[in-house]
Amino acid sequence: MKKKLLVIGAHSGDFVWRAAGTLAKALEEGADTLVIAMSYGERGESGELWKENPNRTEESVKIIRHEQAQKAADALGTPIQFLDWGDYPMLISDERITQLTRIIGDFEPTVILTHSEKDPFNPDHPLAFQATQRARLLSSGAGVPSAFKNIDPPVWYSFEPHQPELCGFVPDTFVDISSVMDKKLAAMNCMGAQTYLKDYYAELASRRANHARRISGKKDIQFAEAHQSQVPRVVSSIF
Ligand SMILES: [Zn+2]
Q1: Residues 200-227: pLDDT tens digits?
Q2: How close is the Cα of 175 to the center of ligand 1, in Å?
Q3: Position 120 in a domain
Q4: Protein residues within 5 Å, CB atom, of ion ligand 1
Q5: How many domains in the chain?
Q6: 189: domain CATH number?
Q7: Ligand 1: distance of its center to the CA of 146 in Å?
Q8: What predicted TM-score, i.e. pTM, was given to this entire model?
Q9: How far does residue 143's CA lie from ligand 1's centre (Å)?
């Protein structure tokens, strides 16, 4: 079966910090990937742009955020789709759930990566989790034929939030991104509106690699991204 990774972020920069390495690794392995940016994060995650010029319009921030996220996606080599749902607050309507369900049905991901269920510091991230949860269930029929195209239920993970403990995030899966860390750095370099996060997430990748080495004994892991599975995985062999 073709490997297909769908990464769903509430804001246009989320995929870069939390999943760029996993995306680049999937592409290196020959998988198809797709990034969904539900919004541009024009209000809540573009502080540096507003600081630079407080008189900017929201539309002009969206244009810059679009360009930056597109460049980051290009640096990784992944397609990206912008839904422009607006942020802070993001609103999830029935139409938007339908739109997301159709995207999942069309792409047929084997793995979905999105936000954690809780985030006491961000009003949009848990909403993105809930929308993804609903759309994933609708696209996989929730066990019965539904109004939507039916696909096999994709494996589903949460990527690492900014303050993991306070979001109830307990990693159970580490992806070795050592071979593609240069791509993650290149993608992070494109996000001019959030440069302060670059060093933070480079250090995090290094720290998660330390954990991954201890867990696996694989001494050559230099960088890793951590995720938490949301549904059990079914395997054909315990090995
Ligand atoms: Zn975000």
Answers
A1: 999 999 999 999 999 999 999 999 999 9
A2: 21
A3: yes
A4: 10-11, 14
A5: 1
A6: 3.40.50.10320
A7: 31
A8: 0.95
A9: 31
